[in-house]
Amino acid sequence: DIQMTQSPSSLSASVGDRVTITCRASQSISSYLNWYQQKPGKAPKLLIYAASSLQSGVPSRFSGSGSETDFTLTISSLQPEDFATYSCQQTYSTPYTFGQGTKLEIK
Amino acid sequence: QVQLVESGGGVVQPGRSLRLSCAASGFTFSRYTMHWVRQAPGKGLEWVALISHDGNNKYYADSVKGRFTISRDNSENTVYLQMNSLRAEDTAVYFCAREPTGGLDAFDIWGQGTMVTVSS
């Protein structure tokens, strides 16, 4: 199975900050990497697919990059509604594993 | 509107069975691969199973293989998860999600989830 490791596990930041979250795969997954945002008690929401493609309706302050084993999610200027948990996911091969999540909290 | 609605969760004793349902609306269900994903309390997301758009291909996480069965009824726009021999570690919120065939390789719509608690 492909292991997905996110860092950091938690992060404190302020409104307006630029934030980067990293996801590393245990083997090459090409660009089969997705990012989801999840708020407490809610379902995950797709933000980025195929490593760098912005899902329809997602604000342009979210961006993704990377390929093979190393990927990043960047939020260019944090807004109050962005405080949530972010998870990466590989869809290169089953089982479609997720990272453990990064909780983004208000500083 | 495009929607997935799960049902069937509840409290069940270890070793017993439960069947979850996920009803789809607002899109052509038969064109989508469907997934079940779970989240134990305070934990991360865990992919559980997938079924192809036509029901011919199914894949499972090792943690549920041999105990859980995914199925779908395209005439009823519903995907199911039959869970047998339930264990305490199966306690989680179970989400269904859709994956468009031929492109996105991501889960673009999710249901709200249904809670399954396995406890004596």
Structural class of the helices, strands and pairings of chain B? mainly beta
The rough form of chain B would be described as: globular
Give the rounded overall mean pLDDT of chain B: 97
β-sheet strand percentage of chain A: over 45%
Q: What is the helix/strand order of chain B?
A: EEEEEEEEEEE
Number of helices of chain A: 0
Our measurement of the CA-to-CA distance between the termini of chain B, rounded to an integer number of angstroms, reads 39 Å
Rg for CA atoms of chain A: 13 Å
Beta-strand portion of chain B reads: over 45%
Your description of this structure?
- The complex is a heterodimer of chains A (107) and B (120).
- In chain A, 0% of the residues lie in helices and 48% in strands.
- Chain A is built from no helices and 10 strands.
- In chain A, strand 5 and strand 6 (53-54) form a beta hairpin.
- Chain A is globular, with a radius of gyration of 13 Å.
- Chain B is mainly β and 120 residues long.
- Chain B has no helices and 11 strands.
- Chain B has strands spanning 3-7, 10-12, 18-25, 32-39, 45-51, 58-60, 68-73, 78-83, 92-100, 109-110, 114-118.
- In chain B, the strands form 2 sheets. In chain B, strands 2, 4, 5, 6, 9, 10 and 11 form a 7-stranded mixed β-sheet that branches. A 4-stranded antiparallel β-sheet of chain B has the order 1-3-8-7, with no helix packed on it.
- In chain B, a hairpin with a 5-residue loop joins strand 4 and strand 5.
- Chain B is globular.
- At the A-B interface, strand 4 and strand 5 of A face strand 5 and strand 9 of B.
